[in-house]
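User: Reviewer 2 asked us to show a designed sequence for the structure in our supplementary figure. I'm pasting the structure tokens here. Could you produce the per-position amino acids so we can include them in the response letter?
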């Protein structure tokens, strides 16, 4: 028994060692796959100069004195920030520490490693799913994406939700996740509903922390959600089911919402929202465990989304380290093909066909197991 334990312990250290080496190897690489880190540095500098990034887009005349080479690399200069309050404060800290977007590789790779620590203490060796995921390594240590902060809080919240030693700690974690990235919202909602949380303290703390998080930015007024409305209204990339529904519904409608903000494919987006609401009710009715509920809901959100950047799949990788599902791990590998979209016409089929094949296989396997267990009752 001791020998087996020692072997497992050595294997764990090998996994952790490989995870660290892989991240250190990609840290020096240039920003080739994404330019988001330039935006992070810009929005950090904007805050440090006393401006509200929800109110002022990068091309605002008021920000002209701040323009430099980094500003030239910022995408969508006409759109105010789409990011949440807590991660904006991290941008501010990063810009204060260094005048280079490289700082965000270190910051968000650090949150990535903290997530690994939480997963390892919670799920043991199954944390290898996160530790050795090429997607995770590329997107955080390689591209410096900010999503690792929100994922850390969701994973920590799920662990506290499972233990339920203090519901207020889980509430703070989930609130911090929502304040880090709004994509955390469907994961949190599915997990909390699946856990059938009825504690008024939990809901009070959750809502209060989220409200307090937005206080420093309230002077933006109606502009508080303008950047996010731009993103949700018209951006599309790497969607599959969504694009299919657009064609099926012949939904080419474009509607001006206000000012320069407009929404495309509104009918399709309403249909997708309805499907997700039905799925949320089904997950609640089936009494899924919170992690499985979050994983199921998150996978559906991404499958129906008009915009699926590769780093969005890191959410599913983290939850697969809690509730292992091969479908989402397959997608975390094939989604990297989206980076070939500029030169390979068949990239989307190559990305999604293996995902739906794996989904069909897992559904059939689970169905057979369920029927077999019912026969033996």
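Assistant: Here is a per-position design you can include in the supplement:
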């Amino acid at each position: 028994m001791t020998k087996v334990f020692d072997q497992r312990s050595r294997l764990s250290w090998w996994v952790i060692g490989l995870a660290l080496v892989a991240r250190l190897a990609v840290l020096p690489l240039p920003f080739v796959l994404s330019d988001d880190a330039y935006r992070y540095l810009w929005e950090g500098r904007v805050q440090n100069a006393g401006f509200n990034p929800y109110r002022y887009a990068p091309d605002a005349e008021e920000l002209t004195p701040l323009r430099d080479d980094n500003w030239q690399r910022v995408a969508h200069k006409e759109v105010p920030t789409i990011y949440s309050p807590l991660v904006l404060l991290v941008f501010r800290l990063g810009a204060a520490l260094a005048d280079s977007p490289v700082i965000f590789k270190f910051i968000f790779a650090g949150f990535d490693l903290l997530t690994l620590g939480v997963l390892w203490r919670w799920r043991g060796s199954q944390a290898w799913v996160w530790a050795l995921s090429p997607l995770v390594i590329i997107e955080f240590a390689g591209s410096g994406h900010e999503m690792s902060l929100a994922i850390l809080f969701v994973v920590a919240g799920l662990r506290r939700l499972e233990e339920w030693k203090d519901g207020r700690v889980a509430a703070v974690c989930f609130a911090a996740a929502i304040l880090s990235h709004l994509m955390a919202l469907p994961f949190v909602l599915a997990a909390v509903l699946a856990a059938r949380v009825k504690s008024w303290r939990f809901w009070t703390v959750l809502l209060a922390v989220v409200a307090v998080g937005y206080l420093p930015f309230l002077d933006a007024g109606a502009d508080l959600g303008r950047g996010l409305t731009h993103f949700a209204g018209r951006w599309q990339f790497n969607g599959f089911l969504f694009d299919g529904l657009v064609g099926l519904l012949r939904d080419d409608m474009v509607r001006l919402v206000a000012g320069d903000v407009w929404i495309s494919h509104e009918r399709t987006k309403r249909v997708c929202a309805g499907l997700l609401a039905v799925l949320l009710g089904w997950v609640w009715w089936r009494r899924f465990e919170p992690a499985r509920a979050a994983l199921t809901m998150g996978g559906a959100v991404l499958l129906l989304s008009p915009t699926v950047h590769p780093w969005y799949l890191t959410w599913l990788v983290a939850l697969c380290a809690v509730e292992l599902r091969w479908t989402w791990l397959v997608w975390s590998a094939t989604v990297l093909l989206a980076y070939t979209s500029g030169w390979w016409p068949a990239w989307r089929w190559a990305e999604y066909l293996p995902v739906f094949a794996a989904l069909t296989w897992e559904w059939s396997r689970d169905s057979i197991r369920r029927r077999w267990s019912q026969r033996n009752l």
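For the response letter, you might also mention the following. Residues 31-101 form one domain. The chain has a mean pLDDT of 92.
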